[in-house]
Structure formats: structure tokens, C-alpha cells
Design brief:
The chain is α/β, with parallel strands linked by helices. The protein has helices spanning 11-23, 36-47, 90-107, 120-130, 144-158, 215-233, 238-253, 297-314, and strands at 3-7, 28-32, 57-60, 71-74, 112-115, 138-140, 165-166, 185-186, 189-190, 199-200, 205-206, 257-266, 272-283, 286-291.
Amino acid sequence: MNKITVIGTGSVGSTIAYTLTVMGIASEIIMIDINMQKAMGEALDIRQGTPFCHPTSVYPGTYADAADSDIVILASGVARKPGQSRLDLAQTNVNITKKIIPEITRYAPNAIYLLVSNPVDILTYTFCKLSGLPERQIIGSGTLLDTSRLRARLAEHYSINQQNVHAYVLGEHGDSSFVPWSIANISNIPIIEGPNNIMQSSSMISCLERPELDFKEVENYVRESGARVIERKGATYYAVSISVCHVCQCLLNGIDTTMTVSTMLHGEYGIEDVCLSLLNIVGKTGITGKMILPLTDDEFRALHNSADCLKNIINQLEF
């Protein structure tokens, strides 16, 4: 029996609840929103499809109904508008999170908290500072979605299964994120060594015959993907929901899994007192450790730049 609470029933929160149901990750899903009618409608819509998927109880509720939740997902806050950066949202969504923290932690002090709303690194920092919970219980979705976008783009370029692509986006979930290309690989073949060693298995055509990978273009593609989707359809929610459900699955399976999520740093790479994404180990109790990657000097500086960008925003906010 797994119980998951989703706070916020906008496009992201509702799609997360729907995906959790279809994937059979939770047996009980509580949907909480300041607009109770919206929460009731979304829960009813999902619940009426459960006879065709895994047995799941989906219903609207209050903070008290979140008691004994294994995971609490925070998808509340104001959504990003076309042309607006994630960090422009900062103070508004910090204030919303500040109101939610004492209400939910009173009833679910032992849950793993998964923050999804933007700016996710700032809100993860807010939760770490104000909740009083152990930091291992607090996870921001961070650059997990960026990493997924990166792997999808590389898989498309090389015409290879996405699961054979091993590459990461680190730092802020935003404009200062970066790809440590020195460790990116296709089935252990380093991408920076060029396409010579990566073959298209279906026809054995050398990747020399396809366009050379433009590293800057790929990084820009990843950074701009969210804005491109918002410009075209008004919001992003499918990919982020799949990413969040992957985290939930790993938490509940209890088998330690590495992923790029946002957590508080305490001296890793010489960085303190900021939340951003490194390669973390996620298990049954939350964050169980961090993988210290062998970054190049340029990648090390890029990580510090990302931390500085976030700290600059933090210093301008009221917590």
C-alpha cells in the first residue's frame, strides 16, 4: 500500500496524479488544492478510468487527509507564462510554499517531499530552510527533466535507444544549467571522442555520415525546450509528470538509483548553502548520498556559476 499526496491540481499536478494512476505506482492518491471544486473534478475524472488500469483510490482531500503519506508532491504555485523566466516567479511561489509548509508537515512529517513547481531550486531551498525536516526527505525535481530532454535529443541524433544514452544536465533548472560533456556517453563510448565509434546498428552506417553533434546547440535546445513548449501550447506537463513519477517509483521500490535532482549542498565541489542538481542517490528513505563526478575545470566553473546565479536570487528574496 503506497500513499501519495499531490498538492496543486493544475495541469502539472493533475497530470502527475493521472500518470501515477496509469503506472500503478500508488494505491491511494490524495489531491489537494485551494480550489476544492477543481480538486474534486480532477480526482473524479481520474477515478472513473481506474477500472481499466491498476486498482487505485483517487480522491480530493485536505491536509489532514495526507497523514501517513509516503510521498508528498508539491505542484502548487503560479505557472510560468510565455516569455517569463523561472526565476521571475520566485517570490510569489516562495510565499505560497511558505504557507503550505506548516500545514502539510504537521500531518505528514515522515513523508518524502518532492518539489516540482518553479523555480524548483529556490522552492527546494525554502523547504529545507523552513520545514524543520531532515534534508534527505526533501527533493527538488531539479534537472531531471532537463536530463531527460538531453537524452531524448541525443538518442534522436544517434538513432539509438534512449536508455543507451548516459548524459546529465547539472546545476540550476534554468538558464545557468550545463552539460558535463566529459562524462557523456553512448553505452560507455564517450561522445566527445566523436561519432567514429558510434554506429547505427540497424544498417551499420557510420555516424560520420550524419551531421556532427553541435554541443552548444544541444545545450541551448535543452535550456529552451520548456519555453518552446509553453509558447506553442501554453504549459508543460507531460514530460515533467513522467519524470516525477519515475522519482516516485524509485523511492517506493527501495533500490538506490542515481538521478539529477535538486538538494541542499554542504561543501560538495566547494559549494555551500544552495540547492541545485548533482547526481544524487535516491532510495527508500529519500536522498541517501551524492555521486561526486570527475568534472573538468570548465565544468567545475560552470557549476559554481550556476550556484552563484541561484544565490544571487536567494539574496533578493524574503523567506
